[in-house]
Amino acid sequence: MADEKNKSEFHRAMLQHNVLIVWNSKYDLGIPIIDEQHRGIVSTINSLHFGMQNNYGKSMLSPIVDTMQDYTRIHFQIEESFLEKIDFPNANKHRELHHELSLQLANAGRNSMLDKDPYQFLVFLKNWWLNHICNEDLIYRDYILSQQTK
Known about the structure:
Layout: H1 2-16, H2 32-53, H3 57-85, H4 91-115, H5 118-148
Helix pairs in contact: 2-3, 2-5, 3-4, 3-5, 4-5
């Protein structure tokens, strides 16, 4: 009986923890592989958030930092290749943004691990999501849409 009560309380507690970023179709760029990778980035951000809510964010920090660095390296490579193939006029600027973001990601991860502060890294990731993916990436989505209507 106690096991069932503990399970029920655990399930209720798990359902009460919200994700930090809820995926919304407005984030879709219409490029399946890039949209899927963006969902993976959101999933990783939400995983760190969930770990922090459940008091194991510090133990997740190093693997999350490593995951984000590896994942974004792959993502940036694919995205930049795609932008070149569609002759996106601001492809070089976007590549430069990626380079800067890579440096910022490395610094934020390193500083967060030195400070043992997952919140610091979570704030960086959320701001990156809001400022780069939800703004800069929409510019090339709009370019693609404009090319389709010609």
